[in-house]
Amino acid sequence: MATIKITQTGSPIRRTKDQRATLIGLGLNKMHKVSELQDTPEVRGMIRKVQHMVKVDG
């Protein structure tokens, strides 16, 4: 299955608890951290929820 790399570009400070939890679910918790996950609809939905704080590298 294909994988995607996700880089955190925004800070979770002053964000809602569910957005912080979504970042942790994606394996991100610090600025510029990179996580490589399988490309599934569930992961795509999580990325869409925090798209203003992450960068996706196909």
Task: Present the secondary structure layout.
Elements (H helix, E strand, L loop, with lengths): L2 E6 L8 H9 L8 E5 L2 H9 L4 E4 L1
Antiparallel strand pairs: 1-2, 1-3
Keywords: Ribonucleoprotein, Ribosomal protein
Pfam families: Ribosomal_L30
GO molecular function: structural constituent of ribosome
Question: Describe it for me?
Answer:
With 58 residues, the chain is of the alpha+beta class. It has one domain: 2-Layer Sandwich (Ribosomal Protein L30, Chain: A), CATH 3.30.1390. It is built from 2 helices and 3 strands. It has a 3-stranded antiparallel β-sheet with strand order 2-1-3, with no helix packed on it. The longest helix has 9 residues, at 17-25. The two termini are 13 Å apart. 17% of the residues are buried. The model has no long low-confidence stretch (mean pLDDT 97).
**What structural category do the secondary elements indicate?**
alpha+beta
How is the CATH topology named?
Ribosomal Protein L30, Chain: A
* Rg value: 10 Å
- Roughly what percent helix? 25-40%
- Low-confidence regions: none
* Mean pLDDT reading: 97
Tally of separate helices = 2
CATH architecture: 2-Layer Sandwich
Task: Please list the strands of the largest sheet in the order they lie side by side.
Answer: 2-1-3
What is the CATH superfamily classification? Ribosomal protein L30/L7
How many structural domains in the coordinates?
A: 1
Strand content: 25-35%
* H/E topology pattern: EHEHE
- Give the C-level CATH assignment: Alpha Beta
